[in-house]
Amino acid sequence: MYPERVFSGMRPTGSLHLGHYHGVLKNWTVLQSKYPCFFCVVDWHALTTHYETPGVIEKNVWEVFIDWLAAGIDPNQATLFIQSKVPEHSELALLIGMSTPLSWLERVPTYKEQMEKLKERDLSTYGFLGYPVLMAADILLYRAIHVPVGEDQVPHLEMTRQIARRFNRLYSSDSIVEEKSYQVAKKLGKKHARLYFALRHSYQEQGDGEALAQAHSILLESNSLSIRDREFLFSYLEVARKRILVEPKALLTSASRMPGLDGQKMSKSYGNTIGLREAKSSIVQKIRTMQTDPARVQLKDPGDPEKCKVWQLHQVYCNESTREWVKVGCKTAGIGCLDCKQPVIDGILREQQPMLERAQKYMDDPSLLRDIVDDGCEKARKSAKEVMQDVRDAMGLKYS
Ligand code: ATP
Ligand code: MG
After folding, report:
1. How far does residue 207's CA lie from ligand 1's centre (Å)?
2. Where do the CATH 1.10.240.10 domains begin and end in the chain?
3. Which of 8, 365, 377, 383 is least surrounded, with the fewest CB atoms within 10 Å of its CB?
4. 140 alpha carbon to ligand 1 midpoint, in Å?
5. ATP-binding: present as a keyword of the record (predicted)?
6. DSSP strand pairing (249-251 vs 5-10)
7. Is the CB of 152 within 6 Å of ligand 1?
């Protein structure tokens, strides 16, 4: 079987923030010592929204790598690389795109949502609609099983699984057995044979147990099959195939939707972020001016943590006893909002200190970073080439 690999990517559209750290990067730092990990800066994905301003991408690529290393990603364990340096990503995207129904893409929740949200950009493009196909190719190209991402990516992962299942059904089967199945199924009569294959399809692509049961009853009720034919068709429903592509699963952290300064999901496009390497004075200022429970106009007014945006950050940065202190202090007006914010500020700055130190090394000597990434791109290309060879062979694009 294939090795248990991890793949994840980030778009170089700016420096990273605490949402990226708690939502995803923390998971990466744990996974890197357990599995072979492929971490990719997906520059082509950045172009889906920034095709008019590609000039910002290169600078951001290096910033993102530094952020990763700052967060504790170890280049001796994980493979760090740039998507466009491994052209196989685009080849696989093109090939799986051939069999991906348009309706799957149109119903992805982020598709309409992002179009609404990013009104200042014209996103009615082929590239933007196809984003999930490219993302599926990124993951499938490494036969990754685990994909540590934020909650917003879960629908993309589900589509990646569907794309893999469809690909395997179309191209991974053994053609002799397949031909035999058509010959034997014919004996069921045209209508039932068609139904048999449709039910098998539903079972194999969607894991539909009812479809399997219905196919069983068609076989049991048929008078025209010999015992051997029936047995063959029974087992063909379940035929274990050599999977060319592997179905991945999303891995989420407990902060898979890390809130920002305004309580919405932390995101650059909402302007509610705290950067991973942001200046201390700016972090302090941002937290100190965060909105709290509007009922607390004055110090003597009691409040309710559930109505306070800072409370969500306490969930990430503070331990149980501090949270208890906040709850009691807020409800009894025993502490002020600035007192309450201090442990969050302290928590963020404490977490940030080692990151700043790690980042400095690469800022002082950028060639260190170039070497890591050159090395990573080469490793990724080697892996990608192997899988693409299998994909081309399976699709009959061999020409040798
Ligand atoms: P932004 O929304 O700030 O522009 P992004 O979503 O464009 O960032 P991506 O490269 O698309 O950045 O996302 C990188 C990864 O970080 C994805 O797995 C995404 O789910 C995750 N992520 C981004 N923001 C958050 C957040 N606030 N909480 C949890 N995970 C997040
Ligand atoms: Mg995103």
Report:
1. 30
2. 277-364
3. 365
4. 20
5. yes
6. unpaired
7. yes
Distance CA 366, CA 373 (A): 11
At 164 the pLDDT is 96
Atom in ligand 1 nearest the alpha carbon of residue 265: 27
156 CB under 6 A from ligand 1? no
Cα 20 to middle of ligand 1, angstroms: 6
Reported as a single tens digit per residue, the pLDDT across 229-250 is 999 999 999 876 678 999 999 9
CA–centroid distance, residue 71 to ligand 1 (Å): 15
pTM above 0.85, yes or no: yes
Fold of 277-364: Tyrosyl-Transfer RNA Synthetase (1.10.240)
Query: 């998507």: which residue's tokens?
Result: 83
CA distances (Å), origin 226, targets 111, 199, 220, 229, 233? 51, 21, 11, 5, 11
In this predicted structure, what is the pLDDT of residue 381? Answer: 98
- Each residue of 77-107: b (16+ CB within 10 Å) or e? ebbbbbbbbbebbebbbebbeeebeeeebee
Those residues with Cβ within 8 angstroms of residue 167's Cβ, 6 or more apart along the chain or in another chain: 96, 99, 140, 244, 245
pLDDT in tens, 308-365: 999 999 999 999 999 999 999 999 999 999 999 999 999 999 999 999 999 999 999 9
| Structure tokens, 205 | 């692509």
pLDDT at 173: 66
Whether the CB of 269 sits within 6 Å of ligand 1? yes
User: Which mutation among 6, 20, 67 tests ligand 1's pocket best, with the greatest number of atoms within 8 A of CB?
Assistant: 20
CA of 221 to the centre of ligand 2 (A): 51
